[in-house]
Design a protein that fits this description.
The chain is of the alpha+beta class. It has one domain (about 1-105). The protein is about 55% helix and about 15% strand. It has helices spanning about 20-25, 40-55, 60-80, 95-105; strands spanning about 1-5, 10-15, 25-30, 30-35. The strands form two sheets. The chain has a two-stranded antiparallel sheet. It has a two-stranded antiparallel ribbon with strand order 3-4. Helix 3 (about 60-80) packs antiparallel against helix 4. The longest helix has 23 residues, at about 60-80. The radius of gyration is 15 Å and the shape is globular.
Length: about 110
């Protein structure tokens, strides 16, 4: 399954854009990445909707897919950071700090 990333008009494997959910439930502040109140509930609700839409009813399958969704979300963060990089000087300090914050603060 693939989805279209309309913001950058790319056809990417399912899940690589899931990191954008983190943008909805938190943001980078001068003191680091801060989540909004109720971020866990919002993230959990979103993931449960995805699992239901995929037709997964067995709790073991749902647990395995939750883990996979986390991995592809993290890969999406890294790919977003490196999207235009040909070498390390092409990655901005802001992009790297943002990605590091997201990867380190995920609950």
């Amino acid at each position: 399954m693939k989805v279209v990333d309309w913001a950058e008009a790319e056809n990417q494997p399912f899940g690589l854009e899931l990191y954008r959910v983190e943008n909805l439930i938190g943001g980078l502040t001068p003191s680091g990445y801060q989540y909004r109140p109720y971020h866990r509930g919002i993230r959990d609700y979103f993931r449960e909707c995805v699992l239901t839409h995929l037709g997964l009813m067995d709790e073991k399958e749902r647990g395995e897919m939750r883990d996979k969704l986390q991995v592809v979300s993290d890969v999406g963060i890294l790919l977003w950071t490196l999207r235009f990089a040909r070498n390390e000087s092409d990655v901005s300090t802001y992009d790297m700090g943002y990605s590091e914050a997201l990867l380190q603060t995920k609950p």
